[in-house]
Design brief:
This protein is an alpha+beta fold. The protein folds into two domains: 251 residues, CorA soluble domain-like (Beta Polymerase, domain 2, 2-Layer Sandwich); 34 residues. Helices cover 59% and strands 17% of the residues. The chain contains eight helices and seven strands, in the order E-E-E-H-H-E-E-E-E-H-H-H-H-H-H. The chain has a seven-stranded mixed beta sheet, sandwiched between helices. Helix 3 packs antiparallel against helix 5 and helix 7 packs antiparallel against helix 8. The longest helix has 66 residues. The chain is rod-shaped and about 120 Å long.
């Protein structure tokens, strides 16, 4: 599906079809084409109507794993990623959004679930100045909104880390290993997206491309600074989750050691009992203890209890129990 937003003569409106004359340089018309779930036919439209290079169109129709920026003559092709954290599932993912921008038009390609684009599209329908500043300024608004959405999602990820840390310190359980590895994988994915995305915004803020004016470079620099902070947060999260994993493994090792010590103590306590019962179970004459035959059993039981108590007292004094 494709929507066209056209700014002409001070007004912004949504139109069902695109007039190719609007894309001509000097037409005085700004166009935003928003493609959701693009098809092969949409790819033909991008190549033949918007004049986008076929390699860039091929990348846009697929899934771009990493953010990037490329120049095709006077057109910029930018790939950036939005973020989504599913708190109920403890899952974290990112989705790419493709931008094709010139001085006359902006084309966005995505899966139709991007909150940032939906928000800006709603603003375009209410306020004419959103598109009146030009396609590059419109792209900045979308990118700025995308990065703004990172902050609450990253905060949720940090809360998840805090919860895992508390559980590991207070009540470590075996199932925590899976959750720790899951959040470790998510943080690694965050770093793999934020770092190259930071580099893309850095190139846009340094005015490597003639399409970016000085004023817009300042705006992109502000977004770049936010991504720098997010990149630093991702590094800190990586260190934290590594520490949480080490603490969890240490707790599991301590629990295993305690269990092994308990088993060893119990086995040691049964050592004298085994010796006594083995001796008195032999088919050989043994010395009779004081008293008649009826009290011999209780003598043996007394020896066993005394040996257990003596060893137990020694374990307690030695700190082994």
């Amino acid at each position: 599906m494709i929507r066209y937003f056209v700014h002409q003569e001070g007004h912004t409106r949504v139109v069902p079809e695109l007039d190719p004359a609007w894309l001509a340089p000097g037409s005085g018309v700004y166009v935003w084409a928003d493609l959701t779930e693009p098809s092969v036919e949409d790819g033909v439209l991008l190549r033949h109507v918007f004049g986008i290079h076929e390699l860039a169109v091929e990348d846009a129709l697929g899934e771009a794993p990493h953010p990037k920026v490329e120049a095709y003559g006077s057109l910029l092709y930018v790939v950036l990623h939005g973020i989504n954290f599913h708190a109920s599932e403890h899952a974290f993912d990112t989705h790419d959004t493709d931008f094709f921008v010139t001085s006359q038009f902006l084309v966005t390609v995505h899966d139709g679930k991007r909150r940032s684009i939906a928000h800006i599209a709603d603003l375009c329908g209410k306020s004419a100045h959103i598109l009146s500043e030009g396609p590059v300024a419109l792209m900045h608004r979308i990118v700025d909104t995308m990065v703004d959405h990172y902050h609450p999602e990253v905060n949720e990820l940090e809360e998840w880390l805090d919860d895992l840390e508390r559980q590991v310190l207070e009540a470590p359980k075996e199932h925590l290993m899976g959750e720790i590895l899951a959040v470790k994988r998510d943080i690694r994915g965050l770093r793999h997206i934020v770092t190259p995305q930071r580099d893309v915004l850095g190139r846009l803020s340094r005015r490597e491309f003639d399409l970016i004016s000085q004023e817009l470079s300042y705006r992109f620099r502000d977004v770049f600074d936010q991504l720098v902070r997010l990149s630093d947060d991702a590094i800190i999260f990586q260190d934290r989750v590594t520490g949480i994993l080490d603490a969890h493994l240490a707790s599991v090792s301590i629990q295993l050691a305690q269990t092994s010590k308990l088993i060893a103590v119990v086995a040691t306590l049964f050592g004298p009992l085994t010796v006594l019962t083995g001796m008195y179970g032999m088919n050989v004459p043994l010395p009779h203890l004081p008293g008649g035959a009826d009290v011999q059993f209780w003598w043996v039981v007394g020896f066993m209890v005394t040996a257990c108590l003596a060893m137990f007292a020694w374990f307690r004094r030695s700190g082994l129990w």
